[in-house]
Design a protein that fits this description.
Largest sheet: 10 strands, mixed
Mean pLDDT: 88
Number of domains: 2
Helix content: 25-40%
Oligomer: single chain
Low-confidence stretches: 13-17, 604-619
CATH class of the largest domain: Alpha Beta
CATH topology of the largest domain: Nucleotidyltransferase, domain 5
CATH architecture of the largest domain: 2-Layer Sandwich
Number of helices: 17
Distance between the termini: 89 Å
Shape: globular
């Protein structure tokens, strides 16, 4: 009896000194992670079983033979949550220096306040290790949070200084396809960050992203050089494991309502082996598994799309596909990237000037049926203005109306007065209706910047604005939207709109490649309206080429001919219609009936509604 008590006493004593078993990342998240309303549509305790594919992805980082994990994924599958759970697990169980790298520094504040901090505050295991956000402890800042044994730092991939200092053991790279090619002059930001881990034998690198362009996608290249694992589900009929692919797997029925809404009434999946159809519930009820397509000694790669996500439905995916197909290449790219989690591959050959000239057609009117509004773009040269007027219809289908030049001395008022009169003129449509220009951009580059500011400042009520282009440098690049920002010039108080010209050129190029009339298709008139062989040479004066810098591929637009004004004006016109954002699919044409031609022109918005008195902003 005494011996038994002694044995139990020793067992109890020694148990207190036994090392605590380290939980896997998924086990740690299930035990400690609380989702809040700030960061989740499903607040409450974290449940890995909510999306079973998450377990192996998260737990793979703990394997001693795995140094790198790559996740190429769509939206709505929990990509950022993987990173946060890994962070929480290391803070609590294996403290060390951790780095979160975002595409640029502008995202740090939002990521820290809306994702990382809520996770820390909601978890007792983390909040007891990191000073509260209301504390005066300087170890807890927006960019860095310290804890016993380590810290978490958040950096932008465009900041060379933050990528080349202290040692880091765990590097977590979010949305790597949005990274610049080079962090300033220092080189590839991924290489800079991972170089900081070389002193740690147990270093870890985690790369997460939605892919963008196949030729330049970092995440696709990393995934292709990995185990290339796919999440597979068993067929409910034959039991064969297989990855879920949209085509040819998803089979759906749909119709379009009278209001134009796409309604998917049924969506099923056809087994690639037995050919039988099964419902979404039947397929997702199965026990899935990750199946590797390659062997790799240290890098595991995972690909997951919305077809397996509990937060997406197959009917919803089918509806998004139909809408993207209807709306053209712009939306189809987004669908491929964000819904299927696949990189976009442009298989269309580049159009040349002769191919575009063959599209010329005879318009019944100056402004053909289908046009809802007109925009204009103006390029300033030393001895002339080059102007193009374009009509826009549903789905951004476009009709070139006129390409015009005004020659003169731009240092004199006469040339500017002629430009003003041209932008006031009208073009005829069906039924005797007349169309006016509802908005125009004037390029402020070149030798007449002040004149452009003076001209546009006095005409902003007509939505005539000055613009300047911002290109993407390989050294400082981050995604620049077509309408990048607005500002006011100091002297003339003119609105200056900065355009992301690389994005604009891609949009114009994609539209020119559309082969059939419909969304994004470009029509050209067979007339004396300026659409000569010279015009089409200028419209095809730039091409996109893939270059490589320090092992990283990126795309740039390069001139293949000196005269490219038609190309630039096409970009500016596309930017005008994106700035105005009119409801082209549903609106009535903005035109003037014959009986109203002599009446004073009302001050209207791009949608045709009267503008509020006193308003001077951009609608």
């Amino acid at each position: 009896m005494i011996a038994d008590k002694t044995i139990r006493l020793f067992q109890s004593t020694t148990a207190q000194f036994e090392p605590k078993r380290r939980l896997t990342v998924s086990e740690w998240a299930d035990a400690n992670r609380i989702l809040t309303t700030e960061s989740s549509a499903e607040p409450g305790p974290w449940r890995t079983d909510r999306a079973p594919y998450q377990r192996e992805i998260m737990d793979s980082i703990d394997h001693p033979d795995t140094e790198e994990v790559v996740i190429m994924a769509s939206a709505q599958v929990g990509k950022t949550e993987f990173l946060l759970n890994v962070t929480g697990s290391y803070i609590d169980q294996d403290p060390c220096p951790i780095m979160h790298m975002l595409p640029n520094e502008d995202l740090i504040d939002s990521y820290s306040k809306k994702r990382l901090t809520p996770m820390i505050d909601a978890s007792l295991a983390l909040s007891t290790k990191i000073a509260g956000k209301k504390s005066r402890d300087s170890s807890n800042t927006i960019e860095e949070k310290s804890f016993p044994g380590g810290y978490v730092t958040i950096v932008g991939a465009n900041s060379a200084a933050n990528l080349s200092s202290r040692p880091i053991r765990v590097v977590l790279c979010d949305e790597v396809d949005r990274y610049p090619v080079s962090a300033g002059r220092e080189g590839d930001p991924v290489a800079l960050a991972t170089k900081r881990t070389t002193t740690f034998h147990n270093r870890k690198h985690l790369y997460v992203s939605t892919p963008i362009d196949k030729d330049t996608s970092r995440i696709y290249q990393l995934y292709a050089d990995s185990t290339m694992e796919q999440w597979c589900l068993p067929c409910p009929h034959c039991g064969e494991l297989q990855p879920l692919t949209f085509s040819p797997g998803i089979v759906f029925e749909h119709y379009t309502s009278e209001s134009g809404e796409i309604v998917v009434t049924k969506a099923e999946y056809r087994c690639s082996q037995c050919g039988l159809l099964g419902s979404e519930k039947e397929w997702k009820r199965g026990v899935g598994a990750w199946v590797a397509r390659k062997q790799h000694s240290r890098r595991r790669g995972f690909h997951i799309n919305q077809l397996s996500s509990p937060w997406s439905s197959w009917a919803g995916v089918a509806r998004e596909f139909l809408a993207a197909k209807r709306d053209g290449t712009d939306k189809l790219k987004v669908f491929i990237n964000t819904v299927l989690g696949e990189p976009w591959e442009d298989k269309t050959e580049r159009l040349d000037e002769e191919g575009l000239m063959k599209r010329q057609e005879t318009y019944e009117y100056e402004v053909p049926e289908g046009v809802k509004l007109l925009t204009a773009a103006v390029d300033t040269q030393d001895d002339r203005f080059e102007i193009e007027v374009i009509g826009w219809g549903a789905g951004k289908e476009s009709w070139r109306i006129e390409y015009h030049r005004i020659y003169g001395d731009l240092n004199q008022a006469q040339a500017w007065n002629e430009l003003d009169e041209y932008l006031k003129r009208t073009w005829g449509g069906a039924g005797g209706r007349r169309f006016r220009i509802v908005g125009a951009f004037v390029d402020s580059g070149g030798h007449f910047t002040d004149d452009v500011y003076r001209f546009t400042a006095a005409r902003e009520a007509r939505r005539i604005f000055a613009i300047k282009g911002q290109g993407i440098s390989a050294k400082t690049a981050k995604f620049v939207p077509l309408i990048a920002r607005h500002s006011k010039t100091q002297i003339h108080n003119a609105t200056l709109i900065t355009l992301g010209v690389d994005e604009g050129k891609t949009k114009v190029s994609d539209a020119l490649k559309v082969a059939e009339p419909g969304p994004l298709y470009c029509h050209f008139p067979l007339s004396d309206k300026g659409y000569s062989y010279e015009y089409f040479r200028g419209l095809t004066a730039e091409v996109q080429k893939t270059k490589r810098q320090e092992g990283v591929q990126y795309k740039v637009w390069v001139k293949v001919r000196d005269r490219n004004e038609p190309w630039d004006l096409a970009v500016y016109n596309r930017a005008v219609v994106e700035l105005l954002s009119p409801p082209l699919d549903t609106m009535d044409p903005i035109s003037i009936a014959p009986e109203d031609l002599d009446k004073p022109r009302p001050n209207r918005t791009a949608t045709g509604k009267p503008k509020r008195r006193g308003s001077r902003g951009i609608n």
